[in-house]
Structure formats: structure tokens, C-alpha cells
Amino acid sequence: MHAWSDGDVPHYVTSNTSIAQAYAELLLAFFRDRARLQPVDEPFYIVELGAGSGRFSYHLLKALITLCEQAMLPAADFVYVMTDFVEDTLVFWEAHPRFIPLIERGIVDTAFFDAEKSTGLYLRKSKKTIDINSLSQPLIVIANYFFDSIPQELFYIDGGSVQNVLIEAEQQEETEYTTAKEALEKLAFKYVYEEAGVPSFKDPVQNLILKEYQATLQNSHLLFPHTGLDCISRLQALSSQGLMLITADKGYHRIDELHNLQAPSIIKHGSFSLSSNYHAFKEHCSRLGGRALFTKHPHAHIEIGCLLYVKDAEEYNETQLAYIHNINDFGPDEYFTIKKHLDKHAAYLSVKEMYAFLRLSGCDARLFQQFIPRFRARKQEFTEEERYTFLQMAATAWEGYYPIGENEDLAFDIATLLHELGFYTEALSFFLLSQQLYGKTTDLLYNTVTSYIALGNIGQAKLLLHEILQLAPGSKEALELLEAMAGLE
2-150+225-336 with 349-484: one CATH topology? Predict the structure, then answer.
């Protein structure tokens, strides 16, 4: 989990409340289309591939449960299955306080899944096995930053000829490394070309797509997502009604983007990753009678696609409309562009502007924490209404916060500003949350003392001051406060 909490693996672009809300709208629309086209008395199974820290999963579940309640659809009509192939990651999710209530309600389950090998899913909590044709509803698959980090084939295509491109790796320095991360950073890569002819895959549709690339591309290095397409085909076989795939990644989906491509750069951020060839996924889906939805304009940060591997895909009107409104017209890619702008200009925003951006984000916890120093600088300008709005937004941001052990202590930051705004009781609640996540420190206890004093609870303040003296014997601030409160209760 340190890979995410320490920031080695960038994940905010696909783990914020904005993208979760957009996906939730897509899923609700798909539920409605299915209810209209072919109602079945069976829950939808939503499988997230490589769910990572679990932060996106939590945001999406929170948004989807709320939407279902608003649409008067029972949350029990879906099961969200978080997958990975690392046991420690599965155990972390299963013990996370945000997921335990959802697991107990049967809304969340976990499963081991290997993108290269797995042909079914064993749900660890319900002990249910999903294998070929087990489901009567289409399987729903979510894959964020997934296809870029599993094996791909690399070919060089020019003038109708195809070369297989292999890779060699070597350490740049003869040094012993204490961690895999250090060794990874020092790896250098070199591509090696070999004449191989057109390869043959087991899937005839993949062969047709590659032959089309061979006939049309010139002077191009082509990443071909053979493993990703095989993975989707194996998952599609689990339902008699097909599959819906929602996916986000860096990549491309238009054929004109594939011409004259240079050899791909291998990105190292705690792992290896490459761009995703979503054009191949589009072709694969279309040739199997489905419908692939991608934006009509170029993306700035991430591609987001919705692929309907279902019969009569054109009739899924609500799903297509939801994609247009929540992804194409203004979606997570545009939100992230705004977020990058805010990173540079947050120090110049007014209180009303910060509230507006927070509402746009769905009160994203990371954005809220980023604004706290600016709120503190403008606190003297708060109207009474803005003061209470901050209290409300602090509660909403915390409800959507999914802790993974980062250094930044959101609860403490909220608590100190609530105290400065005169919300002493609420500040105490957040000081307690901080203590639960990060333990007792003299700084935390001292700030808690000030809230108790402001509320007139001198007895509790004295108890905490004695705790401070146990942690930091001789603390001048604690001794002075105890002396000042002598005889007071």
C-alpha cells in the first residue's frame, strides 16, 4: 500500500470523486437499459480489475449507492467485486473500515484475479464461484490504469511487413540496491527487432485486426493489447448476456494516431507502464457486434471508454446518453485539467470560488485539503453563512475520504480550522479521528486541550495536559496551562 500512500504510483486522476460520479451515472443508466430491454431477477456483478489502493472503489460505491437510492433502486441489486493478484492487497481492503460495513451488507466482495491466466472468479466473502455462463446479467468490468500495466505485443509495421520488437533491460550502474524501486529506476531499455512475419493469435478477431494494421500502417511501432483482449474475452464468457467495460488510461483510440509512431517510452513509477491501444479494443468490440463509446475530441490526460459487448448494443440509449453527458461533453479529463489549474492558482481564490470548485468536484477530499490553507488565510472574511458552509463541506469531504496512510492528516487540518472558526465540539470530533488514524502526539493533544478549554471542560483539559507531560516530560506549555488552570473546574 506504500506504493500509493507514498505517491510512487500516481492515481489521483482515476481516484477522485469526479470520475467516480461519472462512472456511477454510466452504471445507473446501464441498469435502466437492462431493466427496459431484458429484466432479469439477478444482481449485477461489477468487477474492478486491479483495484489498487481501493480509493476509487470507495468513491464509486458511495456515488452509486446514493444514485440508486435517489432512483429508488435497491443497492442489493449489484455486487462490487474488487480484484488483484496480490494477497496483501486483498487483505488490506477486507480489513478497511470503509469497506467492512459494505462487505457485511453483501455489496462488496473480493477476488483473486490474474489478467493473464484467470478464467473465473471466486468471491472470498460470499464463497460464490463465477465461471463460464454463470451470470444472466451482463458482467460489468472496470479497468482503470490496468491495460497499460499488463503485457502487450510490440510490432514495427512498414510497407506491409511486420517485425516483432523485443526488449532488453540492463542496469545503468553496477550498484547493489536495497529496494526493487531503486533497482527499477536504474534500468535502461533497448529495443531489438526481428523478422517474424505476421503472428497468429488463438482469437481470429485479433488476427483480423492485426492484418488490417499490417495493410494500413506505415513506419509505425504498434502496441497490440493481446493480453488485455484475451482477458476481456475470458471475462465476457462468464455471462450469457455479454459484458460492459468502462476503462480509463493514457492511450489513443483513433486510427490516425497510430501512423508513424516512434518506439514507445516505458514509464517507471513503481512499475512499468505503456500507453493503451484503445483503437484495438474498439475494433474488437465492433467486430463482435458491440458498440464502443469514446470521446469525439482529443483528451488532455486520460482516455475514457465505455465498450458494450452486448447484443443489440445500439438500443442501450440511456447508457449512450450518460456517456455523452458525463464523459464526452464534460468529464473526468476536463475536471483533471481544472484541478491542475487550481494547483497553480489556489492561493488567489476567494471563499466563494473555492466552494464552487468543491461542489464541481463532489467535495473531493484531496481538493478540500488543498484549500484549507487558503480558507485559513481568509477566515476573517467569512460570513456566518460561509462559516456554516465550511462545517458542512468538511463533514462531506470527510465522509468521502478513504485513508491509505498518507503523511497528510486531513482530520487534524479540518479540526484546527474548525476550532479557529469557533466550532469547538466539531473540532473535538475531528481531533479524535486524527488520533484514531495517526495516534497520540503532543501537538494533537495540545490542540485538543484548547478545544476543551473553549468549551469550559477544564477537567478533561487537565487530564490531557497530564498525558502531554507523560509524552513530553517538562513541556513548558503544558506546565504553564496547568498552573493557569489551578483551582478551576
Answer: no
What is the SS3 assignment for 249? strand
**Cβ(146)–Cβ(154) below 8 Å:** no
Taking residues 254-261, what's their average pLDDT?
Answer: 94
State the Cα–Cα distance between residues 469 and 285, nearest whole angstrom.
66
Helix (H, G, I), strand (E, B) or coil at 292: strand
Strand-pairing partners, residue 371, are none
Cα–Cα distance, 370 to 346 (Å, whole number):
8
Residues 6+ apart with CB under 8 A from 67: 24, 25, 28
Strand partners, 82: 48, 110
Q: What is the pLDDT of residues 402-440, one digit of tens each?
A: 999 888 999 999 999 999 999 999 999 999 999 999 999
Residue ranges of the domains in the chain?
A: 2-150+225-336, 153-221, 349-484
* % of the chain at pLDDT higher than 90: 82
Q: Which CATH class is domain 349-484?
A: mainly alpha
Q: What is the pLDDT of residues 274-298, one digit of tens each?
A: 999 999 999 999 999 999 999 999 9
Domain 2-150+225-336: which CATH number of 3.40.50.720, 3.30.70.260, 3.40.50.150, 3.50.50.60? 3.40.50.150
User: How many Å apart are CA 457 and CA 437, to the nearest integer?
Assistant: 25
Q: How many CB atoms lie within 10 A of CB 114?
A: 12
The answer to whether the Cα torsion of 461, 466, 471, 476 is positive or negative is: positive
Q: How far apart are CA 29 and CA 11, in angstroms?
A: 26
Residue with cell 478545544: 451
